[in-house]
Protein backbone atom coordinates (compact mmCIF):
# COMPACT_ATOMS: atom_id res chain seq x y z
CA UNK A 1 0.00 0.00 0.00
CA UNK A 2 1.39 3.39 -0.95
CA UNK A 3 0.09 6.52 0.70
CA UNK A 4 1.59 10.00 0.22
CA UNK A 5 1.15 12.69 2.86
CA UNK A 6 1.39 15.95 0.98
CA UNK A 7 2.78 19.24 2.21
CA UNK A 8 -0.69 20.79 2.35
CA UNK A 9 -1.74 18.09 4.75
CA UNK A 10 1.12 19.03 7.04
CA UNK A 11 0.19 22.68 6.81
CA UNK A 12 -3.39 21.88 7.82
CA UNK A 13 -2.15 19.82 10.73
CA UNK A 14 -0.68 22.91 12.39
CA UNK A 15 -4.09 24.54 12.57
CA UNK A 16 -6.99 23.51 14.74
CA UNK A 17 -8.99 20.53 13.50
CA UNK A 18 -12.52 21.41 12.35
CA UNK A 19 -15.16 20.02 14.67
CA UNK A 20 -17.52 17.37 13.33
CA UNK A 21 -20.70 16.25 15.03
CA UNK A 22 -20.82 12.49 15.48
CA UNK A 23 -24.36 11.16 16.00
CA UNK A 24 -25.22 10.06 19.51
CA UNK A 25 -25.77 6.46 18.45
CA UNK A 26 -22.19 6.05 17.16
CA UNK A 27 -19.33 6.82 19.51
CA UNK A 28 -15.68 5.85 19.96
CA UNK A 29 -15.48 2.81 22.22
CA UNK A 30 -12.50 4.40 23.94
CA UNK A 31 -11.80 8.11 24.55
CA UNK A 32 -9.77 9.76 21.79
CA UNK A 33 -7.17 12.30 22.78
CA UNK A 34 -8.26 15.76 21.73
CA UNK A 35 -6.38 17.35 18.85
CA UNK A 36 -4.00 20.02 20.07
CA UNK A 37 -1.91 22.42 18.08
CA UNK A 38 1.82 21.90 18.29
CA UNK A 39 2.25 25.68 18.34
CA UNK A 40 0.86 26.12 21.84
CA UNK A 41 4.30 26.84 23.22
CA UNK A 42 7.97 26.69 22.30
CA UNK A 43 8.84 24.03 24.91
CA UNK A 44 5.94 21.87 23.74
CA UNK A 45 7.06 21.92 20.10
CA UNK A 46 10.69 21.39 21.06
CA UNK A 47 9.85 18.47 23.32
CA UNK A 48 7.92 16.67 20.59
CA UNK A 49 10.27 17.46 17.75
CA UNK A 50 13.57 16.60 19.40
CA UNK A 51 12.49 13.14 20.61
CA UNK A 52 14.26 10.41 18.65
CA UNK A 53 12.28 8.16 16.33
CA UNK A 54 12.86 4.45 16.92
CA UNK A 55 12.82 2.34 13.78
CA UNK A 56 11.84 -1.25 14.61
CA UNK A 57 13.37 -4.28 12.89
CA UNK A 58 11.71 -5.03 9.58
CA UNK A 59 11.03 -1.37 8.82
CA UNK A 60 13.03 0.50 6.18
CA UNK A 61 13.44 4.27 6.68
CA UNK A 62 14.88 6.13 3.70
CA UNK A 63 15.32 9.84 3.03
CA UNK A 64 15.32 10.64 -0.69
CA UNK A 65 16.80 13.89 -2.03
CA UNK A 66 14.55 16.30 -3.92
CA UNK A 67 14.29 15.59 -7.63
CA UNK A 68 16.59 17.69 -9.80
CA UNK A 69 15.14 20.08 -12.33
CA UNK A 70 15.66 19.66 -16.05
CA UNK A 71 18.89 21.65 -15.88
CA UNK A 72 20.21 19.28 -13.22
CA UNK A 73 19.96 21.77 -10.35
CA UNK A 74 17.43 22.51 -7.64
CA UNK A 75 16.86 25.49 -5.43
CA UNK A 76 17.55 24.75 -1.74
CA UNK A 77 14.78 27.22 -0.86
CA UNK A 78 11.98 25.19 -2.45
CA UNK A 79 13.56 21.71 -2.60
CA UNK A 80 11.76 19.10 -0.49
CA UNK A 81 13.06 15.73 0.61
CA UNK A 82 10.83 12.67 0.63
CA UNK A 83 10.79 10.12 3.42
CA UNK A 84 9.87 6.57 2.45
CA UNK A 85 8.89 4.15 5.20
CA UNK A 86 8.23 0.50 4.39
CA UNK A 87 7.31 -2.33 6.73
CA UNK A 88 5.43 -5.62 6.92
CA UNK A 89 2.03 -3.93 6.57
CA UNK A 90 2.73 -1.52 3.75
CA UNK A 91 4.68 1.40 2.38
CA UNK A 92 4.17 5.11 2.96
CA UNK A 93 5.93 8.27 1.86
CA UNK A 94 5.89 11.86 3.03
CA UNK A 95 7.34 15.06 1.62
CA UNK A 96 8.86 17.35 4.22
CA UNK A 97 9.40 21.14 4.10
CA UNK A 98 12.90 22.31 3.07
CA UNK A 99 13.64 23.80 6.51
CA UNK A 100 13.09 20.43 8.23
CA UNK A 101 16.20 18.27 8.51
CA UNK A 102 16.44 14.54 9.15
CA UNK A 103 19.35 12.52 10.46
CA UNK A 104 19.17 8.74 10.20
CA UNK A 105 21.53 6.63 12.31
CA UNK A 106 21.41 3.18 10.75
CA UNK A 107 23.58 1.67 13.49
CA UNK A 108 21.19 2.55 16.33
CA UNK A 109 18.08 2.52 14.12
CA UNK A 110 17.20 6.01 15.26
CA UNK A 111 16.07 9.06 13.28
CA UNK A 112 16.18 12.66 14.47
CA UNK A 113 14.15 15.64 13.28
CA UNK A 114 15.41 19.22 13.47
CA UNK A 115 14.69 22.60 11.86
CA UNK A 116 16.89 25.39 10.57
CA UNK A 117 15.63 27.95 13.09
CA UNK A 118 13.37 26.90 15.97
CA UNK A 119 12.75 30.57 16.83
CA UNK A 120 10.69 30.93 13.64
CA UNK A 121 7.07 30.14 14.51
CA UNK A 122 6.25 28.16 11.36
CA UNK A 123 9.37 26.05 11.67
CA UNK A 124 8.72 25.44 15.35
CA UNK A 125 5.17 24.29 14.58
CA UNK A 126 6.23 21.99 11.77
CA UNK A 127 9.05 20.50 13.85
CA UNK A 128 6.67 18.67 16.14
CA UNK A 129 4.13 18.01 13.40
CA UNK A 130 6.58 16.30 11.05
CA UNK A 131 7.94 14.19 13.88
CA UNK A 132 4.41 13.13 14.89
CA UNK A 133 3.49 12.19 11.31
CA UNK A 134 6.66 10.13 10.91
CA UNK A 135 5.98 8.33 14.18
CA UNK A 136 2.45 7.49 13.03
CA UNK A 137 3.77 6.19 9.71
CA UNK A 138 6.37 3.98 11.42
CA UNK A 139 3.72 2.51 13.70
CA UNK A 140 1.33 2.14 10.77
CA UNK A 141 3.61 0.02 8.57
CA UNK A 142 4.91 -2.06 11.49
CA UNK A 143 1.90 -2.59 13.77
CA UNK A 144 -1.04 -0.79 12.14
CA UNK A 145 -3.58 1.59 13.67
CA UNK A 146 -6.99 0.65 15.02
CA UNK A 147 -10.14 2.40 16.15
CA UNK A 148 -13.33 0.98 17.65
CA UNK A 149 -16.81 2.48 17.31
CA UNK A 150 -19.71 1.42 19.47
CA UNK A 151 -23.42 1.68 18.76
CA UNK A 152 -25.51 3.11 21.60
CA UNK A 153 -29.20 2.21 21.46
CA UNK A 154 -31.62 -0.66 22.01
CA UNK A 155 -31.65 -3.01 19.05
CA UNK A 156 -28.92 -1.11 17.19
CA UNK A 157 -26.53 -3.24 15.17
CA UNK A 158 -23.94 -3.05 12.41
CA UNK A 159 -22.98 -5.39 9.59
CA UNK A 160 -20.34 -5.36 6.86
CA UNK A 161 -21.78 -5.54 3.34
CA UNK A 162 -20.19 -5.91 -0.10
CA UNK A 163 -22.86 -3.76 -1.77
CA UNK A 164 -24.89 -0.66 -0.93
CA UNK A 165 -28.16 0.80 -2.19
CA UNK A 166 -27.79 4.43 -1.08
CA UNK A 167 -24.16 5.17 -2.01
CA UNK A 168 -21.88 4.29 -4.90
CA UNK A 169 -18.64 2.37 -4.54
CA UNK A 170 -15.56 4.57 -5.00
CA UNK A 171 -13.25 1.70 -5.97
CA UNK A 172 -13.61 -2.01 -6.87
CA UNK A 173 -14.16 -4.27 -3.90
CA UNK A 174 -15.13 -1.48 -1.52
CA UNK A 175 -17.13 -2.63 1.49
CA UNK A 176 -19.80 -0.78 3.43
CA UNK A 177 -20.81 -0.58 7.07
CA UNK A 178 -24.60 -0.96 7.26
CA UNK A 179 -26.18 0.47 10.39
CA UNK A 180 -29.60 -0.33 11.81
CA UNK A 181 -30.20 2.48 14.25
CA UNK A 182 -33.93 3.16 14.21
CA UNK A 183 -34.17 5.24 11.02
CA UNK A 184 -36.73 4.49 8.33
CA UNK A 185 -33.95 4.53 5.74
CA UNK A 186 -30.72 2.51 5.78
CA UNK A 187 -27.44 4.13 6.80
CA UNK A 188 -24.59 2.80 4.68
CA UNK A 189 -21.06 4.06 5.27
CA UNK A 190 -18.32 3.38 2.69
CA UNK A 191 -15.16 1.90 4.17
CA UNK A 192 -12.23 4.14 3.08
CA UNK A 193 -9.56 2.68 0.84
CA UNK A 194 -6.77 1.15 2.88
CA UNK A 195 -9.01 0.55 5.89
CA UNK A 196 -10.31 -2.86 6.96
CA UNK A 197 -13.64 -2.91 8.78
CA UNK A 198 -15.08 -5.75 10.82
CA UNK A 199 -17.84 -6.27 13.36
CA UNK A 200 -16.57 -8.37 16.29
CA UNK A 201 -19.90 -7.70 18.03
CA UNK A 202 -23.19 -6.37 16.61
CA UNK A 203 -22.63 -3.09 18.47
CA UNK A 204 -18.87 -2.77 17.80
CA UNK A 205 -17.14 -1.67 14.61
CA UNK A 206 -13.40 -2.30 14.35
CA UNK A 207 -11.40 -0.18 11.89
CA UNK A 208 -7.83 -1.18 11.02
CA UNK A 209 -5.34 0.44 8.66
CA UNK A 210 -1.82 1.65 8.01
CA UNK A 211 -2.58 5.37 7.86
CA UNK A 212 -3.88 6.87 11.09
CA UNK A 213 -5.34 9.97 9.44
CA UNK A 214 -7.55 7.86 7.17
CA UNK A 215 -8.95 5.97 10.16
CA UNK A 216 -9.62 9.20 12.06
CA UNK A 217 -11.36 10.66 9.00
CA UNK A 218 -13.68 7.65 9.07
CA UNK A 219 -15.01 8.99 12.39
CA UNK A 220 -15.59 12.44 10.88
CA UNK A 221 -17.19 11.16 7.69
CA UNK A 222 -19.52 9.03 9.79
CA UNK A 223 -20.79 12.16 11.49
CA UNK A 224 -21.34 13.99 8.22
CA UNK A 225 -23.07 11.14 6.40
CA UNK A 226 -25.34 10.10 9.25
CA UNK A 227 -26.61 13.48 10.40
UniProtKB/TrEMBL annotation:
<dbReference type="InterPro" id="IPR000702">
    <property type="entry name" value="Ribosomal_uL6-like"/>
</dbReference>
<dbReference type="GO" id="GO:0005762">
    <property type="term" value="C:mitochondrial large ribosomal subunit"/>
</dbReference>
<keyword id="KW-0687">Ribonucleoprotein</keyword>
<keyword id="KW-0689">Ribosomal protein</keyword>
<comment type="similarity">
    <text>Belongs to the universal ribosomal protein uL6 family.</text>
</comment>
<protein>
    <submittedName>
        <fullName>Mitochondrial 54S ribosomal protein L6</fullName>
    </submittedName>
</protein>
<dbReference type="InterPro" id="IPR036789">
    <property type="entry name" value="Ribosomal_uL6-like_a/b-dom_sf"/>
</dbReference>
<dbReference type="GO" id="GO:0019843">
    <property type="term" value="F:rRNA binding"/>
</dbReference>
<dbReference type="GO" id="GO:0003735">
    <property type="term" value="F:structural constituent of ribosome"/>
</dbReference>
<dbReference type="GO" id="GO:0006412">
    <property type="term" value="P:translation"/>
</dbReference>
Amino acid sequence: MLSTARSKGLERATTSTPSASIPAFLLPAFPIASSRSFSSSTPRASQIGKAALSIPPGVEFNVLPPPARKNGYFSPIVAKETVQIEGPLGKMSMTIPPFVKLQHDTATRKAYVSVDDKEVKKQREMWGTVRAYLQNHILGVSEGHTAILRLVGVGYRATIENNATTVQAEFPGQQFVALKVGYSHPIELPVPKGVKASVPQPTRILLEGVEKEVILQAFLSTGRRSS
